[in-house]
Give the backbone structure.
Amino acid sequence: MPPTTPPKALLFDIGGVCVVSPFQAILDYEVANRIPVGWINFSISRAAPSGAWQRIERGECILDNEFFATFKAELENSSLWREYWNKLPENQGETVPPPPQINAKQLFWNMMRISRTPDPYMYAALKALRASGKFVLGALSNTIAFPPGIRDELGVPFEAGLLHAPDSPHANDSTVIADQFDTFISSAHVGLRKPDPKIYELAVREMDKESRRRGLGDVNVGDVLFLDDIGSNLKGARAVGMRTLKVDLGKTEAAVRELERATGMKLLEEVQEKARL
């Protein structure tokens, strides 16, 4: 980010930013099942905009057997698999094998389980920012609406809330991640998903309302700093005029250091203190 005036509003993605990335569960699944790394993300992204994953994140379908059957079929698409296999340098001249068989339910629920864990760096930063009262804090997440009583692939009822470790300084915090924000926009509940320009515009309107309510003045699109771990989502935010900060997988501490520079605040003192104990 180029040097600029501090933002008035901070807009956070959830998965891969405030909580452990579901991409980690995808990577773990690929490694454990000897699937070329990157295939699952490739197949999901190439199914856009009308693939099962995109539709579930817009709230256009529900988590049922039909969804999982469609999701599995897309993850095993033979023509896409052939394209992906042939573009890998190590496979040049090799016969294309059948596409890998994907346990779509297991993969999905592993993604959901891993993303219940707060990222220690970003979560601590979020709490420090909230306590300061200096910024409007928003969340903008491509999310999934879980039907009441939904069970995972093992038949266990799934709880969508955060899992705070018993020894965490946040152990007594709310398990509802939305409680840490002034505004919270869930794709599945508004029928839009990133990188649709309309969902960023909605986020700006909501944060502007909150800022005015608190007597902090108006918030325009250029006053917003948006944090996400996916390049296309950041590109979409920049296209409407937002500032952006990329959060790389496994490098949230570095992202928080950038956030410190952008806000002029020390955000990791609590985490550093715990590490010294």
